[in-house]
Amino acid sequence: MSDKKDHNKIDLKKKLEEAQKEAEKLDEAISNEQSSTEITKAKEELSQMTESAKRTMADFQNYKRRVEEEKKSWAIFANFELIKSLLPIFDNFKRAQTHEPKDVNEETTKWLEGIGMSINQLEKLLQDFGVKKIESLGQKFNPDFHEALAQDKGEKDIIIEELESGYTLGDKVLRHAKVKVGNGE
User: Fold this and answer.
1) Please, which pLDDT band fits residue 175 given cuts at 50, 70 and 90?
2) Which segments within the chain are labelled E, that is strand?
3) Same domain, 146 and 124
């Protein structure tokens, strides 16, 4: 009997060892499966973080662009009133140039040259700041850019005379062009 007991013990030991090996294999498989699940979760988190970082970077780029546009807008706005107040002075210089004295001598010629140089300098300055003259003569009347002061014989709604020049700064009207419009007669 003792042989049988010993033999049973050996069988039980073998079965126990086999069971322990199977348990170790199962533990390893479970551990690998958990690692695989953890890796999958980590990959998903990494993907989400990458997408979040891309969105944040795009938001930042948009923010930078908006700030630059706002800076430009503020600069234009800051100059708007100053430039608008310079326009009557510019007009007066142009009017002075058209009223040339009757008796032209060396002194009046120098005066006319000085007026011309001042007009050119002021015109270049306005252009450098982005001021553009509104083209009016021969154009269809547009209330966004023109102010009709009179009507006369001519093609209907076509500007036949510019009484005062109009100007824009960027997409804003500094001053509407004052015009005479044809009445269709």
Assistant:
1) very high
2) 131-133, 146-152, 159-164, 167-169, 172-175, 177-182
3) no
